[in-house]
Prior knowledge:
The chain is of the alpha/beta class. Among the domains are: 2-149, Rossmann fold (3-Layer(aba) Sandwich); 152-183 and 221-306, no CATH class. Helix content is 45%, strand content 16%. The chain has helices at residues 12-22, 39-49, 59-70, 83-90, 108-116, 126-132, 134-143, 152-160, 199-202, 212-220, 222-234, 273-281, 295-298, 312-323, 327-343, 351-361, 371-392, and strands spanning 2-7, 28-35, 53-56, 78-81, 97-100, 120-123, 146-149, 174-181, 242-247, 252-258, 263-267, 303-304. The strands form two sheets. Strands 4-3-2-1-5-6-7 form a seven-stranded parallel beta sheet, sandwiched between helices. The protein has a five-stranded mixed beta sheet with strand order 11-10-8-9-12, with helices on one face. α1 (12-22) crosses α12 and α16 packs across α17 (371-392). The longest helix is centred in the C-terminal third of the chain and has 22 residues, at 371-392. It catalyses: 2-C-methyl-D-erythritol 4-phosphate + NADP(+) = 1-deoxy-D-xylulose 5-phosphate + NADPH + H(+).
Amino acid sequence: MKGICILGATGSIGVSTLDVVGRHPHLYKVIALTANTNIDALYEQCLEHHPDYAVVVDENKARIFKDKLQNSSIPDIQVLAGPQALEYVATLDTVDSVMAAIVGAAGLLPSLAAAKAGKIILLANKEALVMSGAIFMQAVTESGAQLLPIDSEHNAIFQCMPVGYIAGMQAKQARRILLTASGGPFREMPLDQMASVTPDQAVAHPNWDMGRKISVDSATMMNKGLEMIEACLLFNMQPDQIQVVIHLQSVIHSMVDYVDGTVLAQMGNPDMRIPIAHSLAWPERFDSGAEPLDIFAVRRMDFEEPSLERFPCLRLAYEAIAAGGIMPTVLNAANEIAVEAFLNENVRFTDIPIIIERCMKKFVVTEAGSLEIILETDQQARLVSRQIIEDLNN
């Protein structure tokens, strides 16, 4: 049996991971589950999966959770608190695989710790790779860790790569990646109406069931910008080799165009259990619980180019990776603050790219040569973004 640690167990990816793991109890032992504040969901997961450790990042919530466990049928689970505990459980000797599913910059340090410890990393946190770039990939190479992408698009690309492909390699026969996107809920909304978009409208994704932050990123297409940056690192390609394609049905999850004219595509229903099961079973396959794709029900597949006028966040992501250095870190931090402000109804939907662009203009591109530089840049960009939001509201 393989030991698994799930960072972000109560989020949508964590829940789907436990669903897949529960279908194969003879293959996986849940060693650790982590949550930020959702102790009720974590408690139910502990009752079902009996991990050795449970981490609650919020220390006040952790105390409540520990008391709750003491009065339950599973009092022997060791409860840890604080962000440092995430790194601890991600590097335990009993852990073989780490599902890195914490959303945002908060997932960077435990994911990087798992990479340095040589674990099998199931990477669902795109922000960690966007922020730390070459440092993360270097840690994977030096430790001998295995990096398996969970995002449906990157998992699809991985599946379409040559036999024996390892993340970070350059597949010389592959000349282009076609990175698919659903287009989100506002693909056809008149531009003059987008300023009035509400958080509830933005999180109502037409095809996928995701968390609120990721759903807003999908609506702005920043998620595709972050995925483009991540794909450059995972597959050792240049930005001009990655083309974003809107595919309304979300049946093709991405494609790889080869030098001989062959285009390989990975297809399936829009269910995150498919890429999760692929990575858990890799290099084999097993049941994910997802419904088989009925190609006759799909009937047709449509494709179109994204409009950078409608989706300026995608343009900003290409500008950030072209600038290099610390700029992807700035982009990510500004986006997280802008999305948080929008979800709290402090700024308009159309303010999100304005905040990001103004923040990026405040920084001079320097080399992201160390983790300390990256973390300092992340904090500075958050402060700058909050000031920009304050200025917008005055």
